[in-house]
Amino acid sequence: xxxxxxxxxxxxxxxxxxxxxxxxxxxxxxxxxxxxxxxxxxxxxxxxxxxxxxxxxxxxxxxxxxxxxxxxxxxxxxxxxxxxxxxxxxxxxxxxxxxxxxxxxxxxxxxxxxxxxxxxxxxxxxxxxxxxxx
Length: 134
Fold this sequence. Notes:
Elements: H1 2-5, H2 8-21, H3 32-51, E1 61-66, E2 72-77, H4 80-97, H5 114-133
Helix pairs in contact: 2-3, 2-4
């Protein structure tokens, strides 16, 4: 499975996704532009380090974000390399498991959201109550 996660086509697609999401650099300071250059220059080393268990994720960079009503919340920003690895893994797992989920399952799935889940629940409730009162 790890071989599939680290396949160059999957990594390149993950790179495109991570880049399109934009975002700040992590504790290592590497930018998204530098990530693209890094993968182009060091893909084989990057791949082997992961396959051999030598790769260690970096700590996240902690940033305080102001809340609209006052106060602050902590946000953890992973390095761009760690985000690339996370995206590569997510793509492979999604391809494998997405077809197995029930069509009424909405949590943390592509192209699904909480509003759709509420709409579906309201539809179920309406059908149940119509049967009870008819």
